[in-house]
Amino acid sequence: MAAELVRGQNHPLTQTRLEIRVSAGAPVVAGATLSDDEGRVLGRDWVAHPGAPALPGLEVPRQAAADHRLAVDLDAVPEAAHRVSVLLALPTGPGDPDRFGAVVAPFVAVTGLDGSEVASYTITDLDAESAVVALELYRRQGAWKVRAVGQGYAGGLGALLSDQGLPDARALAGEIGEAVARGLARTVAPPPPRTAASGSSAMADATGAASHASSPGTHPPAGPPRSTQPPSPAEPQSSPDPRPAHEPQPARPSGQTGPVNYTHPGRQAPAPPAPAPTAPPGEPGQPAVPVAGDATGWSMDERLYNQVWGMFEDLARCVAAYRSAVDFADSRMEQELDKALSDPRSRIGGQGDAAREAARAKHGHLVDRAREVLDRDLAQLAAESAVVEPALPPAYAGWDNPVWHAYRSPMEIPMALRLGDLQLPESRSVGLRIPMLVRLPLERGMWIDSGRSGADALTESDELRRRALRSAVELAARLLAVYPAGEFAVHVIDPAGSAAGALAPLVRAGVLVAPPAAGVSGVSEALARLTQRVDLVQMAVRGGAADALPPDLDTAEQLLIVNDFPHGFDDRAVTRLRYLADEGPAVGVHLLMVADREDAAEYGPVLDPLWRALLRLTPVPDDHLADPWVGHAWTYEPPNVPPGSRVLEQVLEEVARARREQDI
Amino acid sequence: MTANFSKGPGVNLSKGQAISLQKQDGGTLTAVRMGLGWQAAPRRGLFGSRTREIDLDASAVLFADKQPVDVVFFRHLVSDDGSVRHTGDNLVGGAGQGGDDEAILVDLQRVPVHIDQIVFTVNSFTGQTFQEVQNAFCRLVDETNGQELARYTLDGGGQYTAQIMAKVHRAGAGWQMTALGSPANGRTFQDLMPAILPGL
């Protein structure tokens, strides 16, 4: 699980090839320094900055931007370097903010190459500082760790670099400023969110810059820093300043500096959240009576989410305690029985029997006590679950929860989505299930395994396929329902048309983007459409040119249901699918595969990364999920619509109605 | 840490001394915190104001009948059963203000039934010996009201890099704390096992 660091806290790094993501509300310069075991930067060739973006093992962006990715390969960092400091600085051009206090608190995250977050840190409490050491990665006992630093400098980059012992710090800071100014002329700001009211001139700028961004290889190299040369007037300093578009908060009067309003523009209630309901103190000696929403958070949504995760962790840990006690009791009894057996005295009379009896009694006693504690904890969690489940909003609730019957299309995206239920063998006796909540927007695609690898080998394979399809349709309906109208789009690939029956609810309600794609040509068209979307959005995000997206581009998150894979797929389509699985999630394009891995066996290990990238779910209960704390194997159960219920159709009708209303 | 801890009724332990962990009102303790603090000794002579960072790490080893079952240290901050929690690694130590630099919280009610001893250790990760450490202490605090129950101050340092500080162990229906104070050598708790076992 990703660690959210606070200032001064550190975290071990298990990978050496990492990315560092930076996001700030305004363009910032990102750089990195290497320093020796004394913390000194030995020379300017130990500083990676926009004017000299690559060092061994380090690459930083060439320009100031609100979002950055820095590449780090700790294995390639010179032996002599003991620390890699990641720095952020405000650009020094006219009109730029001059203090971090005037911009949104920057957020930095260390991620693996697959995008999985290792640790993150929000640099709060900055005020007059204009440069800050955000993180440092440092060697420790042959391994690397990351520490949240957050050391700011009111004197800017110059002060920061000279504090790290760089001899000509001020001169280098000047050069960096110059390189940034050259780079800024090329960047285009992201548009204000969703209200595409920007003028046509901005659009024209953006298109110009986008053609630039579409060919990253042709960027003019920033070149080696020229130490004393003043900024050349011939540099495109005078090109239209794109940054006015950088003011995403409509609430903020333009031109006003000073503390930033952190209120989300879409959120109308700045009042502090109502206090969380807390459990009244229980009678002495009795556990407190559980209350729904008894957790931290700014909204009931968040409190319930945290409470469910709290229950998940508590169940994992109390079962760990029980299993550990039973394991210990078992191994102790074994040892004692062995001892009794090998003791020659035990052969005389009943001594051996007595010893064995004593060992068994000790075992039984300990297991009984452990069971007693477990039963107490399970009862408490079951009581909590009994009050939490009925209080859950639709996104967190099972299909059998009455909240779905009162479903209305929501105004906001919920924090998380229930993908199913989790159970351990120990919790089954009290019927305790933990909702499996995943954060939205989705971070990875999903794969509903229609193969017979699951535990339930008795189910017919046709039946498994049918159930897998039904799970997929119910999951897609759930996603459509919890997003505000029009913010989630579902595509379907069904090459042989074999899923027509299962897909009927989606088709009838008219909530699909297009009819299910059939045949080889349908497959390749559907894939091409989504691939192009991923390319476009990715290009725009990388080039910082989100303005350049075609105005008719659908901004909704996209889900592609793929049935019958690899039927109807040629090699090219398989490549495209893998591309979507890798690159899609970051730009809001997700896969929902309904497949049996065996069917695609002829592709061999080529497809392994595809399966690994997807979260595997099963249409029947199967114990393949692990918790992040102890690693128990949890039994996953899909959230099936109760037999005979029409809740799915009703919900889809409401989704369709809300969409029609929105289109008017 | 800025909390006010009354020096109040806490017992100053000496090596080998044990106290029973009970509330003043005779009730049973539910949660305790083992806090560790230290300060780098200043150097003498020229540049005497320069202190070197000393990274001491606190660990807790959970034993069931002298078998180590689980360990809580900077790489594994919470015992699997959730009863023992490390608040996080401190790499440099405090200014010796009396606050805890690293703390390990023990929820005595949640300690699994088979765990009968929890041993607390301190290692010098950066390799300095305890000669370079001053004002090192470990203390047991009642987590529910912040009251110090017992404090054990390390004697003047010696040529060793680790200390087995204390153990909290079951005694009857309640718990006891015993100051151990045995020196050892090692960088992490694994190196200390031979030194821990005789104290169990």
TrEMBL record, chain A:
Residues 65-162 form the TerD domain. Residues 218-242, 270-284 have a biased composition (Pro residues). Gene3D superfamilies: P-loop containing nucleotide triphosphate hydrolases, sav2460 like domains. Residues 185-294 are annotated as: Disordered. It comes from the Bacteria. Belongs to the CAPAB/TerDEXZ family. This is TerD family protein. It comes from Streptomyces sp. NBC_00119.
TrEMBL record, chain B:
CDD domains: TerD_like (cd06974). Residues 11-187 form the TerD domain. Pfam families: TerD (PF02342). This is TerD family protein. The lineage of its organism: Bacteria, Bacillati, Actinomycetota, Actinomycetes, Kitasatosporales.
